[in-house]
Design goal:
The structure is a homodimer of 480-residue chains.
Chain A (H helix, E strand, L loop, with lengths): L2 H20 L30 H12 L21 H13 L10 H17 L15 E5 L2 H23 L5 H7 E6 L4 H10 L2 E5 L9 H13 L3 E8 L11 H10 L3 E5 L24 E4 L1 H4 L7 E5 L2 H8 L32 H35 L4 E3 L7 E6 L3 H14 L5 E5 L2 E7 L7 H23 L1
Parallel strand pairs in A: 2-3, 2-4, 4-5, 5-6
Antiparallel strand pairs in A: 1-7, 6-7, 8-9, 9-11, 10-11
Enzyme class (chains A, B): lyase
InterPro entries (chains A, B): Aromatic_deC (IPR010977), PyrdxlP-dep_de-COase (IPR002129), PyrdxlP-dep_Trfase (IPR015424), PyrdxlP-dep_Trfase_major (IPR015421), PyrdxlP-dep_Trfase_small (IPR015422), Pyridoxal-P_BS (IPR021115)
Keywords (chains A, B): Catecholamine biosynthesis, Decarboxylase, Lyase, Pyridoxal phosphate
Chain lengths: 480, 480
């Protein structure tokens, strides 16, 4: 395919994309296919000779679309939102064309420098403390990671290196293995599974701290665990505080927990993967109070801030904590400027070496929406969640299972888990809307997350009418 | 921005991309900017109100392009190639529009199933042993990782879990920390820095085995290290064999090393990040002989197989080895089909949770080029490398420092490192071409990698004439 055919096919693809997103409401949100559906539909080997674009695009409709879960349908209420906006898509086209691999400043200076400045822009939108910003010669700064999971892992590894160096400096006879065997990390029992996984990968013990009645980790529970571990000769070194848990969007008590982390010399990482986007609105910023105690902070603009996946924003107060954990410098990656202090080689901030020019997406989205446009997007989602909440409250058969703070409503039919499983089964079999469950303690709960950029009150009301109707038949079947 | 404006702007962007790539030869390959150039050119905060697309696209030319290293210029000979093709860009547009996060089968069945089948297609193109393919109900299979670094890390973590379970089953009194303190991984002293990093992250000792005169890891050196470690009470568990090293594209002796790994019960991971693409050509397939000894194999179609970044292809013989290392199943990620055996939840195969619909790129590229088109791309690059090699051989001032096997030529002026540093400095100051150096033992060497999809014999000859001219002035300055 040469440039002139790309001009033609690219424009057709632009229309295909616009048609898809304009018409997405009319597609069934969850597919009908069964596991293994795709393999029989396509050849068993790649073709030897080139095929025509027309044949491929036909197969998109015939083979791919029937197996797609439509995440951007206004009837998709599952998981959490994932970002989708036209400005981000335009930026991604440009990113693909430039196609640089920005592992070092020299590998493409614009790629590194725009990222640093965009992370400062975003940090200022969140009113992060100055110490997290790169500015001209700050000690902190931001980096785009691929996912919150990677951010948590990177923070844990940096903390592990830091505590190991500190202990080996004080007690040179200690081996790395001895230290690692004693390290303990902490998070709430409501934290995302990626935190547990980071502990596994890092080879350290992760302790799940029992959360309180509001699914929030509190100071007393953390302090008790830390004291016990210290008494047992273990080394507490890392705490993940979750702001906006995946199950029910609860918030750990950062203002209580922060001082403990600082006092006990434990690295404090904040995971606000979903909720973080809301902190650009002044009325939600208080949920981030206490961030000044943290060593690292992360949230996902690719969830709720209209920057398409992947774009996970991570800040640290001391960039040398990250680079100290990862820095390896073979000659083929060195360049003239690297010791100047002014420049950033992001390969030392992350797990992979390669990285795309993802800050273009942030730049396009921030400028084409403006802060006000982004705030309006957040506010609309929160308002729709409260609308769904108020509908629920009018129906005494249902209960709300966690405080509705942002765009997620956790609810269930009063009664057994079995009853709620039956309701969930009916909802996901009908495929008019799509949602997923969670456990809150021993209760099976349904999660209704406001997701699509195009979801409106009418969709929420239709979803509610549908849920009520199915609930009616479940309850009737129960009685029968 | 609504759909109708996206139709307009998207088509303008398609033309912008085509213009950029058509005209890339006329741009200076390496930018003139100094560290910190970008920050003063843009505002210190994001705008409150939306800005117009026209203003943003103007800033691309004014602010971004002057700071871009043009990786797809035919005068770019640095690092290794990174893929750029129009079919991959078209597929990425579609991927952005569908915008699903394919962490589980249910999250978007097409996303998972196309990936599994594309990895089978690609595995067959490479003539991988059947045991690496997923087929209908195989025990192996492939997955798209973000980078070779992640693939190495994932393999090391899977191997670490496997050996830990095995030892704890035999000796229940052994703690995980005790085992980890004794684990030893091995790679060549020519292996990529990401291998050392994987060892650091995984918290295990990594031993660099001295390579032979051809920069190849050999059986005797590995066996010696393994025997010494076993005698010292340590536990050899993991070997990375590199096919096509970053420095000079040398090949470890897989046919010798494979049997040792199998006999000593060490996980064998093959990293063929760059060279792997060449194995689709029958005349280069012999370089992969011995893959049957491996537990995992990885290469990067996003380097040399025209599938834009990111797309790193990894296969394992036993998928349960990977999923065993990572599997954590909170309720909100569970779905009806997950215990059926027929389905794949790729979140258990990788570090992050989220993942894009990257197999679309493979599908578009494989179909629109056909296997023959991809082979022609590889062959052209190898032929151009040999053309550059033969030009070099005609000039007695230069020496070739490693066998030219694929698309990389390592060369230097006969004489001191100082002399070659001066040559490098002149090349990269002139900015007519761009390349990077490496160390081979104590020698500073220049790497000439055939990179661009559009590089032709004429560009290679111009580059050579330019290098000769600069060499002349360096040598003259030396004598003066």
């Amino acid at each position: 395919m040469d440039a002139s055919e790309f001009r033609k096919r690219g424009k057709e693809m632009v229309d295909y994309v616009a048609d898809y997103l304009e018409g997405i409401e009319d597609r069934q949100v969850y597919p009908d296919v069964e596991p293994g559906y795709l393999r029989p539909l396509i050849p068993t080997t790649a073709p030897q000779e080139p095929e025509a674009f027309e044949d491929i695009i036909k197969d998109i409709d015939k083979i791919i679309m029937p197996g797609v879960t439509h995440w951007h349908s206004p009837y998709f209420f599952a998981y959490f939102p994932t970002a989708s906006s036209y400005p981000a898509m335009l930026a991604d086209m440009l990113c693909g064309a430039i196609g640089c691999i920005g592992f070092s400043w020299a590998a493409s200076p614009a790629c590194t420098e725009l990222e640093t400045v965009m992370m400062d822009w975003l940090g200022k939108m969140l009113e992060l403390p100055e110490s997290f910003l790169a500015r001209n010669a700050g000690e902190g700064g931001g980096v785009i990671q691929g996912s919150a999971s990677e951010a948590t892992l990177v923070a844990l590894l940096a903390a592990r290196t830091k505590v190991t160096h500190r202990l080996q400096a004080a007690f040179p006879e200690l081996t790395r293995a001895t230290i690692m065997g004693k390290l303990v990390a902490y998070s709430s029992d409501q934290a995302h599974s990626s935190v547990e996984r980071a502990g596994l990968i890092g080879g350290v013990t992760l302790r799940a701290i029992p959360s309180d009645g509001n699914f929030s980790m509190r100071a007393s529970a953390l302090q008790e665990a830390v004291d016990q571990d210290k008494a047992a000769g273990l080394i507490p070194f890392f705490v993940v505080v979750t702001l906006g848990t995946t199950s029910c969007c609860s918030f750990d008590n950062l203002l209580e927990l922060g001082p403990i982390c600082n006092r006990e010399d434990m690295w404090l990482h904040i995971d606000a993967a979903y909720a973080g986007s809301a902190f650009i609105c002044p009325e939600f910023r208080h949920l981030l109070n206490g961030v000044e105690f943290a060593d690292s902070f992360n949230f996902n603009p690719h969830k709720w801030l209209l920057v398409n996946f992947d774009c996970s924003a991570m800040w640290v107060k001391n960039r040398t904590d990250l680079t100290g954990a990862f820095k390896l410098d073979p000659l083929y990656l060195q360049h003239n400027h690297q010791d100047s202090g002014l420049i950033t080689d992001y390969r030392h901030w992350q797990i992979p070496l390669g990285r795309r020019f993802r800050s273009l997406k942030m730049w396009f989205v921030f400028r084409m929406y403006g802060v006000k446009g982004l705030q309006a997007h957040i506010r609309k989602h929160v308002q729709l969640a409260h609308e769904f909440e108020s509908l629920l409250r009018q129906d005494p058969r249902f209960e709300i299972c966690a405080e509705v703070i942002l765009g997620l409503v956790c609810f269930r039919l009063k009664g057994s888990n079995h009853l709620n499983e039956a309701l969930l089964q009916r909802i996901n079999s009908a495929k008019k809307i799509h949602l997923v469950p969670c456990h809150l303690r021993d209760k099976l709960v349904l999660r209704f997350a406001i997701c699509s950029r195009k979801v409106e009150s009418s969709h929420v009301r239709l979803a509610w009418a549908h849920i009520r109707e199915l609930a009616g038949s479940v309850l009737a079947a129960e009685k029968a």
